[in-house]
Amino acid sequence: MYRVVIAGAGTGSMTFCGQLIRSGKVKPSEIAVFDPAPYHYYQPGFTMLAGGLMGDVDRLSHQMKYVARETRSLFHPDVNFISKPVTGFFPNSNKIGVDGSEISYEHLVVGIGLSIDYNKIPGLYEALEDENSPVGTIYQYKYCLKTNRLVNKFKGGQAIFTQPNQPFKCGGAPQKIMYLANSVWNKTGVRDKTDIHFYIPPAQIFGVQTYAQELEKIAKEKGCNVHYQHLLTKVDPTRNEATFKKGTEEMIVKYDFLHTAPPQGAPKVLQGSPISNEAGYVDVNPNTLRHNKYGNIWAIGDCTSCPTSKTAAAAIGEAPVLVHNLGKVLDGAEPNAKYEGYTSCPIFLGDNKLMLCEFKYQGQPDETFGNQNTPSSLAYYLVKTFLPRVYFTLLPKGVWYGRNSIFKPKFE
């Protein structure tokens, strides 16, 4: 039996584990982490890599060092790190399934993220795998390298960018890469020969009204044509055609470049499990992050049922709340810290500018530096240069608390 079992080794799990150890409530040797991934990726870096903020990937030596580390290296050496996936949840017996056996826990923290399903869009996977097909995405490392090459070699034509239905990682990511590509094409002299179109399912460009209004103006100023209530349903890489659905109508659009954000959802191991809701997400109290039925189960990050945007910032914001509340329960008390849905979505706009969108539950702005619905060069350099270094150095050690920086939040 382990005192704390952590399923998944993503941003939330890594941050939580570091802070839990620093709290002194649990020894590193009493913790087990299960994740089969050999590398942990700084996924916000995918957009920067694909969008040219790190230069031409073919001229970068060791591109992975910018966005990846060995997963094991990000956890305390005394933590029991097992490079295997969790295959089942058995909350009534306080066990998880791993590689045909069962592992017992006193407390379980689930942080296994979202699952990406390229095959939900016929033709998409084949197009992404074909190096000669002008289709890319920022949602996987090898594909973001391909996207960088496509953007840099683009000679003009019809450039299409898409967004899936919610949920998906980072609500602004599909338009970030559009603005960055636009910036590259301005520099390479092909922008005047390019038509940019952005096809999205919702009726506005971003989920928070105050930011949406400004982003719609920015898209218009940059000549990016936004098509609302359009969902990508098919890609034909032999004809370079994308099929979209709007209501009951279908339309086919030719492309010379296509960037897609693939459909995403709860991991299969969670779908239909006893710890999940009907949508497949771990059924937790959105404030305490404690399971609504099983008092010794918790969740963090994208796999939770919390109605917040699924970002690294949200997971980092959840971590100190979860550590505090778990510590209270270990001491025989009730959890009293509250996560209010804080998340952040930094949207690169090109030209060394960025809009730092910060908000909480119900889409309410929750800004750190005052009014942030205007482009900022300071925020650009903060996100591009500073945060990637913080991510791999301070987060694993449990000494970074997101918007609170190195200052640990205080809960009553």
TrEMBL record:
One GO term of the biological process aspect: sulfide oxidation, using sulfide:quinone oxidoreductase
InterPro entries attached to this UniProt entry: FAD/NAD-bd_sf (IPR036188), Sulphide_quinone_reductase (IPR015904)
Keyword terms of this UniProt record: FAD, Flavoprotein, Mitochondrion, Oxidoreductase, Quinone, Transit peptide
Cofactor list: FAD
This protein's record includes keyword Isomerase: no
Gene3D superfamilies xref list: FAD/NAD(P)-binding domain
Annotated compartments: Mitochondrion
GO cellular component: mitochondrion
Molecular function GO terms recorded: FAD binding; quinone binding; sulfide:quinone oxidoreductase activity
Keyword Oxidoreductase in annotation: yes
The family this protein is said to belong to: Belongs to the SQRD family.
PANTHER family tied to this protein: SULFIDE:QUINONE OXIDOREDUCTASE, SULFIDE:QUINONE OXIDOREDUCTASE, MITOCHONDRIAL
Name of the protein described by the UniProt record: Sulfide:quinone oxidoreductase, mitochondrial
